[in-house]
Amino acid sequence: MFRIIATIVVGALVGIGLGRFQASVATSGFEERFAGSRATLAEVRGEKTKAEVVAQSTGTPKVEVEGGTEFRFGTMQHGDSMSHDFVFRNIGDGPLNLDMGASTCKCTVGELKSSILQPGESTIVTLTWTAVAIQAEYGQTATILTTAPDSPEVRLQIRGQIADSFVIEPSSLDLGTLSVSDEVTRTFHVFTYLKKAKELTDFVWTDEKTQKLVDISCKKVDLDLEKFPQHRNAFGVHEVEVKIKPGLQMGQANARITFSTDQEEKVGVLEIPVSGLVTSDVVLIGGPSFDPKQNKLKLGTVKSSEGAAVSISLAAQGEFRDNLNPQIVSVKPAESLNVTIGEAKIVGSRKLFPIIFEVPKGAPETHYAGGSPKDFGKVVVRMNAESAQDITIHIQLNVVK
Q1: What is the distance between the alpha carbons of residues 315 and 126, in angstroms, rounded to a whole number?
Q2: For residue 333, what are the CA distances in angstroms to 328, 329, 358, 361?
């Protein structure tokens, strides 16, 4: 047994010794190369090494990247490849060495045409991006190593967007605040990123109640690069005009516009949401005590011995402005509340009628706490315009001694 163990130990020692010898032979001549930085392009090409360039320099190199170190490709289609040339120039008074550093995995750095630049010389670094993943925004980088003392590393960056087959701008249509009597026109653009796509069809305003008030037209237009530089790579662009006639219902306007393309089996139905706020030509405006959404005026608790007064305004515009003559036709509680309309004045495009609510001194007690619809007081204002409905103002009021 002892002989067997001794034989195994001796064999192991011999094996270790042979392994070390072979490793020494295999790596001999390479230690010096890997002890420092990796070989530069200049070394690979048989040019001067980085160390020699630095040692033999009689001046100081300085690097400049013409047009900056960042470039935006704009919007490109999934699967496409695009490249950009960054021009490096030596604006110093000594030779400049360039070498490739790290780059992100989806960014390829083209081969440097020259790795050593004498003063005044330039070379090109090419970055190529392939749109593999579908993402709204991308950004990739590459690093160029230099011997310029003030710029040992230059970080290049490319940015852009990867488009769907069709891009709608703006992505939603905002009508803003408009009157029921306003005629409104809005436009949006559809950018095509499919070579074979030529037409947009079947535009539909999805709100059936107001479809008759909406006209939609579409035409193909030239790409305006000053206005849409991010879509320089689009194959085509359509301008869609939406005209809305007067007559939308008051309140929030919410609809969608849907449409199809001649690539429907590949793309499906496209849509853009529409939103806005439709107001009347006659509206009530008040301070913190007035809720315009519910036409509710909060007078609160008033002592009969003191009385109180609050005013709001009736604002008229459009076709009603000059001919409107509002009148108070009913007040509840009439025994505790006086309501009058003062002299109108013009402010901008509106005509404002002040409405004064007064609890006179000595008014009898009354309780309209506003806990439910029947617990509110009520003031009705009548218009003299045929299409202007009466306005009801709900009153919350408690008169106490």
Answers
A1: 64
A2: 13, 13, 12, 15
SS (H, E, C) 63-111: EEEECCCEEEEEEEECCCEEEEEEEEEECCCCCEEEEEEEECCCEEECC
Closest CA to 183 of 123, 113, 245, 270: 245
Distance (Å, whole) CA 372 – CA 357: 22
- Cα separation, 382 vs 226, whole angstroms: 53
Distance CA 63, CA 146 (A): 8
72 closest CA partner among 184, 159, 157, 190: 159
Question: Which residue do the tokens 């040019």 mark?
Answer: 47
Contacts of 355 (CB under 8 A, 6+ apart): 284, 311, 312, 313, 314, 328, 339, 340, 341, 342, 381, 393
Token couple for 80? 């496409």
Residues listed for the chain: 401
Q: Chain centroid to CA 72: how far? A: 17
Whether the pLDDT of residue 374 is over 90: the answer is no
Under a CB-based contact definition with an 8 Å cutoff, are residues 173 and 203 in contact? no
347: left (phi over 0), alpha (psi -120 to 50) or beta: beta
For residues 236 and 227, is the Cβ–Cβ distance under 8 A?
no
Asked whether the whole model's pTM tops 0.70, one would answer: no
Q: To 5 degrees, how large is the angle CA 94–CA 100–CA 103?
A: 140
Q: What is the structure's pLDDT at 272?
A: 93
Query: Which tokens in the block code for residue 278?
Result: 């439709």
β-pair partners for 269: none
Q: What is the pLDDT of residues 145-162, one digit of tens each?
A: 898 999 999 999 888 776
Both structure tokens of 241: 């005009």
